[in-house]
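Tip: read the tokens left to right.
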């Protein structure tokens, strides 16, 4: 949801191998803000990992973060505010889990 006053971002995590159970949380963002602050992102990821462990009784073997909607100019900011904190969180909570962080860039061409 985008407005001049801000927008809403979400983190959604699947909790089972069938993709039928989910953890989700939302964040209010300022207008034009595309990247979550590191602490907010870390806290949400921690809660998602705890929800996975609570639902399944086991730790994840692989954490995949699919990040949609970034622009090339925001890649360094996404790395600093999301990818690095995600790595720190996964290593701290699930040391044996692998982490894959995928960024889908938005390409908007206006004539």
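Filled-in amino acids:
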């Amino acid at each position: 949801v985008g407005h001049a006053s801000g927008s809403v971002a979400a983190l959604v995590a699947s909790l089972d191998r069938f993709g039928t159970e989910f953890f989700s949380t939302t964040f209010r963002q300022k207008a034009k803000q595309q990247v979550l602050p590191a602490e907010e992102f870390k806290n949400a990821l921690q809660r998602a990992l705890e929800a996975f462990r609570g639902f399944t009784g086991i730790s994840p073997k692989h954490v995949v973060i699919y990040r949609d909607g970034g622009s090339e100019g925001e890649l360094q900011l996404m790395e600093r505010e999301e990818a690095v904190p995600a790595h720190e969180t996964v290593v701290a909570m699930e040391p044996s889990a692998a982490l894959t962080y995928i960024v889908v860039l938005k390409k908007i061409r206006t004539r």
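The first strand starts at residue 2 and ends at 3. Helices lie at 38-56, 75-93.
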